[in-house]
Amino acid sequence: MIKAALLGAGNRGMFAYGSYALDRPNEIQFVAIAEPNTKKREKFAETHGIEEDMQFSNWEDLLDNPKLCDVLLVCTQDRNHYEPTMKALDIGYDILLEKPMSPNPSETLEMAEKAHQCNQILTVCHVLRYSTFFSELKSIIDDNKIGDIMSIQWNENVGYYHQAHSFVRGNWRNSTESSSMILQKCSHDMDMLQWLIGEQCTKVSSFGSLSYFNEDNAPEGSTERCTDGCAVEHECPYSALKWYHNEKTTWPVNVVELTPDLDMRLKAIKEGPYGRCVYRSDNNVVDHQVANLLFENGVTVAFTMSAFTKEQGRTFQLMGTKGEIIGSTTKNEITIKYFSGKEEVISPAQVQGGHGGADTMIMRDFVKQINDKTYKSKTSAMESAKSHLIAFAAEESRLSGETISMDEYMNQLKQLN
What we know:
alpha/beta, Rossmann fold, Dihydrodipicolinate Reductase, domain 2, 6-stranded parallel beta sheet, 15 helices, 37% helix, Gfo/Idh/MocA family protein, Gfo/Idh/MocA_Oxidoreductases, Gfo/Idh/MocA-like_OxRdtase_N
């Protein structure tokens, strides 16, 4: 059985990966935890039966020890990925790392190169590669069912409520504290596109802005917090009272307060970041963005990320020389429309767990990697780094207004190093 340590007991560490160990204790067991939030640290430790001397209030204290176990799951905040990962690789840990690898492109490359030099496993949580849905889509493409792909339209439908929760009120609202929107949320999509197309991206252009979630759009009668007597709270789709003041124990309510106690939930809404008016927060990340991508084989991609959708998920249209593929993760449907007139609708098998079962599947894959060093995973740290660089280039283009050559961008990063 694999012995593991967790850095960061937030929603991803606590539930996405921690729950896998609870369901399959014969495969992996958490024996150490580092988490600055006392309530989260104690809850994770109690749930997993972690001894008191293996509970740490910060990752530095945990990594100051000799190697404590086999693997490390790094689920800290974005800007706290680089240092613990680099130190853990030196110690000899195999690592499962939450995306993004780092908000810094140079650090991202360094981490991938370090893992290669140390001959250690560094798997980045681009979980969609492991989902049954996208695995099915990849098989359809590789089987040449629609011929050669010519162009792709790809939408990341963030969902109005997810934008408000994570990117207006939540941990990823401000790029100076976390990452740009296209890196944090859409590095999944850049990784998917690179994987499905099977070639490297050569050019990127991008446009987008924060247009709606700002004080200019605050309704008359609104207040700093939803609990401050806001005149429009009852009608507001983003009301913190509607979203969080209930006894649910699932996302996103459990992010605001772990326990389903209404008094504690109300206290968190009144005092914490999730009770702020969505028009009066300190958010700065975009609420909509487009990116145009050109790949080595001539495939063009029109990518759109938008907060302004009812449903959360991805929709796409892949256009090939023999047909097209239309898909929706929300509907769990992939439709192949052949130019011959035939039409095929596929509903991929579903697996328990977040991201359409992908959280479960990446843990299963990680366990396989640790137990069998000859096992070939679906990705590598360097592949993940390259897809990150597409997102970095897109943000560079958005800010500069220039089309970014990926070769030139890479050369500039190497010169900086």
